[in-house]
Amino acid sequence: MSRHLPTALQLAKLGLPVLPLREGKGPMGNCRACRKNACGGRPNMKTPGPCACPAPCHGWAAATTDPNILTSPAWGPAWRQAAAIAYHPGGAGLTVVDLDHADAITWARQNLPTTRTVPSARGEHWIYRGSMTSRNGVRPGVDIKSAMAYARWLGTGTGTMALLPDVVRALAAKEPTAARHVSGATVVSAPAGGGQCPHRSPAYLERGIAMAEQRIEEAPDGIHRTVYRMFLAVLSAHGRCGCLTEKHIARLFTAAQERGESLRHCEDAWTNARTTLGM
Length: 279
Description:
With 279 residues, the protein is an alpha+beta fold. Helices cover 34% and strands 15% of the residues.
């Protein structure tokens, strides 16, 4: 039995929909039948359909309080590989304000009502009663995790849980500070380019993007490293001449997020790759 499964079962009894996380804090990747949502996906946070896959596919949508599902043979391999537990805050009527560093914590103490607080690796989770729309990057170092999102289980924390305040709800109504929407996906900006394009055909770029997508999708583990390396490879080959567009980047981000990468991890990997290349 996984060392995390007993805790997951206890949390499920408390009404927290839970799921296993792999190393790197991402959810388990979809099975082959569900890859790229070929099965139709799981469209909302209350039901597991139309996908009938018994495995923990589709990230946050796999979270459950059903002990029969949690202990099923289909979930066994995921629990054995699990490095941590996540829960779906919105499914439990909760909202997590994820504060990623000291400056974000200072801002929260000055602007948000006191509530239950849980220390995280780099900051704190502030947990409120009530659910809302999730959104990353509402302020520097501040993410909101509630509906259609997951948060890592870090313990019970301290303090009394307060009702979700309007000031937190208002944050989700603002555009994220670090990203914007392009063709239905949230991505960072493409490099400006300006160099001489060495490619003889647009097909060369298309093959490069398709290969990067495939390697991300098929990575057996170490998804963080794979995403960074693929971003680095694409930028190295196509980032200086201006032929790399935001639509291409959106495809890479989508492939990474379908493997469980968060938007923040995608943005960090992209920024780190550009820094490495001096772009």
